[in-house]
Design a protein that fits this description.
The chain is an alpha+beta fold. The protein has 13 helices and 15 strands. 39% of the residues lie in helices and 17% in strands. Helix 5 packs parallel to helix 9. 37% of the residues are buried.
């Protein structure tokens, strides 16, 4: 959000916005600030300011379009600690009257992967995906997948199958197959996924190691492992002008991710995963389908990724494909 005219007169310049962010931090933390700045890239649904205390510590103020549910952040922080910012909701009558909801969080060190991924040694992108897999291996949680399968996944697949939008038509046979295979997912452990993993939401250090995962607000409660891994398509690959292509070192990035996320899982979980690769495969493809189609719009597909879907649904995880390519087409 860059149009200052959307703010009330008291905040309609960048200087006023920076000063307001400093005031919010000073009042909340009861600590003096030194300066404030805008990040190099702004998010789509908020205006972000980074505020530096006189101690040197940095905090992020976001002026958001809508109230933020911090429960997903709390789930992520509980599992991943300092890799997930600790978010608190602030109350400011002036901002809320103007339609903005402020939040504060600690500042994650490093840069977004977007800033670095095309500018450094491509091997460091492999370091990123391995580091991401290693971090997410801590996201397995206790509980049974059976209830989630019956209460959430099956009804959503059935809604897609019944949807009237023409975007769904080529994929109806696949959706029927996924419904038949759905009982496989009940064998899998529950996993807290992040449904918006992308180059903007991954923070990395100069050596390629992951320093943080941002923007958890879209992340649902835990689902069977595999569903939330489907963003691997666009982490190890890219969409440019609605055309999908794999990065030069796609296989190394992709295999590194799977090795770390499964290898780092608790031993009892790892045994289940290694015994059920077909279930992981099914879960991964279901996650891919759900990421493209919106049930609330009668099955209309996301135009950005719909063209890539015929290729994506041919993906096979390393444990099943052996030396074959990741995609069949």
């Amino acid at each position: 959000m860059s149009d200052a005219k959307q703010f009330p007169p008291s905040l309609n310049t960048t200087t006023k916005q920076l000063n307001k962010a400093r005031k919010l931090v000073e009042e909340h933390l009861e600590a003096p600030t030194k300066k404030a700045r805008f990040p190099r890239i702004q998010g789509m649904f908020s205006k972000t300011v980074i505020v530096t205390l006189k101690t040197g510590n940095e905090y992020v103020i976001q002026l958001r379009y809508e109230p933020l549910d911090i429960a997903p952040f709390e789930r992520g922080h509980k599992l991943l600690g300092s890799l997930v910012p600790k978010v608190e909701v602030l109350h400011d009558d002036e901002l809320q009257a103007a339609g903005f909801w402020p939040v504060i969080m600690n500042c994650i060190p490093g840069d977004t992967w977007l800033v670095r991924c095309d500018r450094w040694d491509p091997h460091l992108n492999v370091v990123v995906t391995r580091s991401l897999g290693r971090a997410l291996s801590r996201c397995f949680v206790e509980g049974s997948s059976a209830q989630v399968v019956q209460d959430t996944i099956r009804p959503k697949l059935e809604q897609l199958l019944a949807a009237e939008h023409e975007d769904v038509n080529p994929f109806r046979p696949l959706i029927r197959q996924l419904l038949e295979r759905l009982p496989q997912l009940e064998k899998l452990p529950l996993f807290q996924s992040h449904l918006d993993l992308n180059e903007m939401n991954l923070m990395v250090l100069e050596n390629g190691e992951l320093s943080g995962i941002l923007d958890w607000e879209l992340s649902p409660p835990p689902t069977p492992f595999g569903m939330g891994c489907n963003r691997l398509h666009t982490i190890a690959g890219q969409i440019n002008n609605q055309i999908y292509h794999e990065r030069d070192n796609y296989v190394e990035m992709e295999k590194g991710f799977w090795e770390e996320i499964i290898g780092g899982a608790p031993e009892h979980v790892r045994k289940i995963l290694k015994a059920n690769p077909e279930a992981i495969q099914t879960s991964f493809i279901i996650g891919t389908i759900f990421d493209v189609f919106d049930v609330s719009t009668e099955g209309k597909g996301s135009p950005i990724v719909l063209k890539a879907l015929p290729k994506w649904v041919t993906y096979r995880i390393p444990a099943l494909r052996g030396d074959a390519p990741p995609y069949a087409i």
